[in-house]
Design goal:
single chain; 20% helix; three-stranded parallel sheet; 9% strand
Length: 136
Amino acid sequence: MADEKKRLIQVRSEKAARFKRDGAGKKKQLSESWRRPRGLHSKKRKQKKAKGPLPNPGYGSPVAVRGMHPSGYREVRVFTPAEMEGLNPAEDAIRIGASVGNKKRQVIQEQALSAGLKVLNPREITVPGEEVTGDD
């Protein structure tokens, strides 16, 4: 199953299209992030080939790997150490929430390491009082 999962993740990354907003190259203030074309005469809405692809069901990822992290783990957001209970290290990887402070983040990272869970956004935490000094 692991080989099949890797293959499907590879398939998902190969068929990913870059959908651009219509008119993004014409005006500086328009970002490229996708917006549905709604104009009455819009060539992109009419799906003219030269104007680029529109998102549709054919671009979806395989059901077996939908929503998975590219590393092959199911991504779980964690804000407290208690939320890591019941996670399977073979299937799940944790992403620590951005609003979690350093103290709690350190506890979560240590518990994840001992449980064998992968942390997708680890951070090197230094204690302010303990600076590393070199011997001169």
